[in-house]
Amino acid sequence: MIHQSKMIKVVKSWLRPLYRRVRPLNPVRKALAFQYLRGQGIEIGALHFPLEMPRGARVRYVDRTNVADLRRQYPELRACRLVSVDMVDDGETLAATADASQDFVVANHIIEHCQNPMATLENWLRVLRPGGVLFCAVPDKRYTFDKPRPLTTLEHLIRDYEDGPAWSWHGHFIEAAAFSSQDEPLSAEASEIQAKKWEEGDYSIHFHVWTQIEFLQMLCFCRNELSMPFDIEIFKKSGIEFIAVLRKHEKAEHEPESSTRLAQNYQ
After folding, report:
1. What is the rounded average pLDDT for all residues in the chain?
2. Beta bridge partners of residue 133, listed in sequence order
3. What contacts 259, CB < 8 A, 6 or more positions away?
4. Who wins on pLDDT, 185 or 225?
5. Cα dihedral sign for 116, 122, 126, 129?
6. Contact assessment for residue 121 and residue 158, using Cβ atoms and an 8 Å cutoff
7. Residue 155: pLDDT band by 50, 70, 90 thresholds?
8. Cα separation of 153 and 97, whole Å?
9. Residue 224: is it exposed, middle or buried by C-beta count within 10 angstroms (0-12/13-18/19+)?
10. Which has the minimum average pLDDT: 61-70, 101-110, 198-207, 253-262?
11. Is the distance from CB of 228 to CB of 117 less than 8 angstroms?
12. Cβ(265)–Cβ(234) under 8 Å?
């Protein structure tokens, strides 16, 4: 059985190389934020690493609980300064946020934590005004602690969207636990024990993992098959992550595009 102190060490070992390699990307995020973000919006799950905003942009921070509870859930961040939480809400549903009320939504390293990514994307677009921007940075699994995990397939995401994520919920915890050791996969018994602890503690795991190509395929499906109202302004690989900037429009304004045509905006 993995005790809490050992688990904190495991999580720190995951996060240390990730933070070292993400922080130098701050200028890339900053440049894109300054180019695309205007008006008033929200950032989901910023914790200790909020996106730097351009002058004049006004942001409110959304998280699933208050700062005190976040510190209890993430003891590995005890030395970090967390942003003040302006609104407690489920970042996947944004139920407390009115339709078409935001000029931008920022969700960096969030969608991999979401149980139903397509429905989450739909909700993020719902709260944007026409012309509003979704700014989304996603870790590429090949360059993080998720490297040994299998890619999330489009078929899996479609089933999550159509049937709900309950069918795969426990399996994700098992998979994340199995590959939580940097040495070798945990045994089935150890994985089950660790998964149960995470489930009982409502720990926010990476439910889904992608490279940039698979994520782009999901975006194309959402736009073309589900008629979600957005265009891809930019899709940029940057170190261990890739950044998607989507702009919302009215549904009647777009025509289906292939992933090849959409990839022209991928850098």
Report:
1. 87
2. 104, 247
3. 216, 217, 220
4. 225
5. positive
6. no
7. very high
8. 30
9. middle
10. 253-262
11. no
12. yes
Q: What is the dihedral of CA 8, 194, 45, 225, to 10 degrees?
A: 150
Beta bridge partners of 140: 210
Q: Bin 169: left if φ > 0, else alpha if -120 < ψ < 50, else beta.
A: alpha
Distance of CA 1 to the CA centre of its chain: 29
Tens digit of each residue's pLDDT (9 = 90 or more) over 114-127: 999 999 999 999 99
pTM of the model: 0.83
| Full DSSP string of 53-90 | PPTT-EEEEEESS-HHHHHHH-GGGTTSPPPP-SEE--
- Rounded to whole angstroms, what are the CA distances from 130 to 59, 205, 234, 251? 18, 32, 17, 10
| 18-35: burial string, b at 16+ Cβ within 10 Å, e else | beeebeeeeebbeebbee
Measured distance CA(141)–CA(133) in Å, rounded: 25
Place of tokens 């889904």: 208
What are the residues facing 139 on neighbouring strands? Answer: 241
In this predicted structure, the answer to whether residue 199 has a pLDDT above a threshold of 70 is: yes
Residue 157 CA to residue 70 CA, distance in Å, equals 28
Cβ(7)–Cβ(196) under 8 Å? no
CATH node for 4-144+207-265:
3.40.50.150
Polymer length in residues for the chain: 267
Structure tokens at 193: 């024990």
Contact status, residue 149 vs residue 209, Cβ threshold 8 Å: yes
Strands (E), 97-188: 102-106, 128-139
Closest by alpha carbon to 242, among 8, 34, 29? 29
Determine the residue type at 232. I
Contact 38, 103 (CB under 8 A): yes
